[in-house]
Amino acid sequence: MVPPLYNGIRLNSQYSRNRKESTMEALSAHVRPNARLAMILAATALSFGPQYIANVSSILDQSLLQSGLAEGSRAFALAATLSNLGFAACVPIGLRLTQRFGLRQTYLPLAALFLAACALSATAPNPRVFAISRTVEGVAAGSLFLTTLPVSLTSFPAPIRGRFIAYAIGGLYGMSALGTVVGAVALLVTSWRWVFAIAGLLSALGIVLGLLSLPHEPNAPGARWDFPGTLLLAAMAASLAPPLVQIRFAGLGATSVWPWFLTGALLFLIWIAWETQSRAPLVQYRAIHTVRQISGATMAILSHVALIFVLVAGYQWLQALDDAASRQWLTAALLFVGCLVVVAVAAMWLHPVVGPGVLGAIGSVGVLAVGWLWREQTSGVSVTRVSCEMAVALCLIGLVLIMGALTTALAGDLHEARLRSCSLHFHRNLAGALAPSFAGWWMARSAAVAYEHQRDHATLFQPSALYAYQKLVAAFELKTGSLAKAEQLAGAALLAKAERISLLAALHHTADVVLVIGCAMLSASVAMAVTGKGRPLSHPAPAVSHVPAQREVSEAKARTFVVR
């Protein structure tokens, strides 16, 4: 007897009597992905993509947010920090929720929660409401991050399963690229609220696709939950929030900063010790243990940190250029997206030829080249050049990130890819939560040190400085006809020039950090290349079997069903 159909899906006869115990099974190798698989892939990207769009756009729209909410940079730092920490901490939580309550029962409520939070962010009347809504966004998006991965791995046919993972990880970085475009358009129209409206609309689309494509899965109320690990993780995230907000303003050595960081580090070490011996850990640290897996994880984490530093440095530098305009921000963002498409197509073609390690090495060398150019940058640089260098650096960083994350997932048993991905993306997003605050602190510290150096060594008692000042006064006096006004304008012009020189010094010091990270990325890429090309993204499907459908279904794995 042929098993019955349920929503177009033929159920395993062993479990057709109990719909609560059925999950998606791997497609036959000869079956091409259908519309349902395309919707699952889109729902995967839209589960975390809107949060990436909002995060990247917020970096570019800091001035709009601060002016729109009538608050300074401290309120913005609070909202961004809480959102990033919530996202990172909930990556492993979401995977466990899916295992406990089922995919559909987890995905849809969390996506609805994210949609509601986006609506609240778009209409936030004050910084407090905005910080709460951004925190909820981070928690919901982080919990959604890995929800669809297990069912996707078993849904896609084995010959193209690796290509699905590549598309999912590429979509992750593609959403970040789209965030630069959305942020640039927000600058062009001088409105930051529509960023969250766009994120909400994309989330709503994800909900619709989830309703159409995601399967009904059984609840597992008896599944073991790591309550001590959850509490330790929450305590660690809470202890990191105050110093990440304060470090930009008080510095790393302040008593309101370093004790909190020390507490967070100790809690993190305790949490790792607990997770390694827990019977139901939130993060399976033993899942990443081979050289290839460790190299891939290192590439992905370091490239995420490099992404943050390049975005922060590029944003600060373009903001300081006198001729920078909103439309030029949009040009730079579109250039980034265009370069990313070219790099992605080239990477998919070259992956089976040279392997991910060589591609990662190529990307790392390119990042080192851009870092070196920024290290030698002069104050007369044009907006176009900075935009092009920033776009190239971001694309090559994306290449390293995608190759690292993809290889980590593919290196080993694909049925354990979710465990490796959970470990990788938890640490990657945790590093991403720490990096913006440290990058902002590093830029501010470097600029302050350079400014103080100028003030100590460049005074009007020096003939060259006095001559420049007198020349400016004379020029402004011809324009204004007032000596007092001319002296005031000359002093302001010298101050602006000193600030620009200080920012240039900060850019040089940030380029030093990018160079160090680039060297580490290159080392990890070389280590991966030594291990070989690894598993291909796709391979030819086996010959079509003529086994009757009833026998095929009866031999399906337990707790699965087969898509026909």
Could you walk me through the main structural features you see in this protein, from its secondary elements to its overall organization?
The protein is mainly α and 564 residues long. The chain folds into four domains: 1-221, Growth Hormone, Chain: A, CATH 1.20.1250.20; 226-279, no CATH class; 283-446 and 510-541, Growth Hormone, Chain: A (Up-down Bundle); 452-499, no CATH class. The chain has 18 helices and three strands. It has a three-stranded antiparallel beta sheet, with no helix packed on it. α3 runs antiparallel to α9, α7 runs antiparallel to α14 and α12 (326-354) runs parallel beside α14 (383-410). The protein starts with a strand and ends with a strand. The model is unreliable at 1-33 and 543-564 (pLDDT under 50).
Strand content: under 5%
Helix content: over 70%
Give the H and E element order.
EEHHHHHHHHHHHHHHHHHHE
Please tally the β strands and state the result. 3
Task: Tell me the strand order in the biggest sheet.
Answer: 1-2-3
Structural class, from secondary structure content? mainly alpha
Mean of the pLDDT scores? 79
Number of domains: 4
Question: What is the C-alpha radius of gyration, as a whole number of Å?
Answer: 26 Å
- Low-confidence runs of at least 5 consecutive residues: 1-33, 543-564
Largest sheet: 3 strands, antiparallel
Shape: globular
How large is the count of helical segments?
18
CATH superfamily (homologous) name of the largest domain = MFS general substrate transporter like domains
Membrane topology: Multi-pass membrane protein
GO molecular function: transmembrane transporter activity
Main location: membrane
GO cellular component, one term: plasma membrane
